[in-house]
Amino acid sequence: MATVIALPARVDLSASIDLRDRLLSGSSDVTIDASSVNILTTPGLQVLLSAKPHLAADSRALTIDAPSAEFLSCLTSFGTDLSAIQTEGAAP
Q1: In whole angstroms, what is the distance from residue 43 CA to residue 26 CA?
Q2: CA 91, CA 62: separation in Å to the nearest integer?
């Protein structure tokens, strides 16, 4: 069963530190609920991008669930999309 991590409305430096710690402490697949995100800052994106290879190396999946329009817009502003974050085989 996947660990579900609900992102806060603002994924800034302090939220990113908590997110990093939660991602590193688990041993199961991870589903990130991004439905409440209004703002994704650079530190948040960095944590999400670095989580993908870390989890994939442990044969763990990373899926973004129900991304808000704002979350997707932030990704686009950074010049990236969900495929840069989710592991292979994760639900689109």
Answers
A1: 20
A2: 9
Q: pLDDT tens, position by position, for the chain (92 residues)?
A: 789 999 999 999 999 999 999 998 888 899 999 999 999 999 999 999 999 999 989 889 999 999 999 999 999 999 999 999 998 755 54
Q: What are phi and psi of 48, to 5 degrees?
A: -65, -45
What is d(CA 70, CA 74) in angstroms, rounded to the nearest whole number?
6
Q: How far apart are CA 18 and CA 69, in angstroms?
A: 23
3-state helix, strand and coil shares in percent for the chain, rounded to the nearest 5? 45, 15, 40
Q: Which amino acid is at 74?
A: C
Report whether 23 contacts 63 (CB < 8 A). Answer: no
The residue whose two tokens read 């990113």 is 16
Burial class (CB in 10 A: 0-12, 13-18, 19+), 26: middle
Q: How far is it between the farthest Cα atoms of the chain?
A: 32
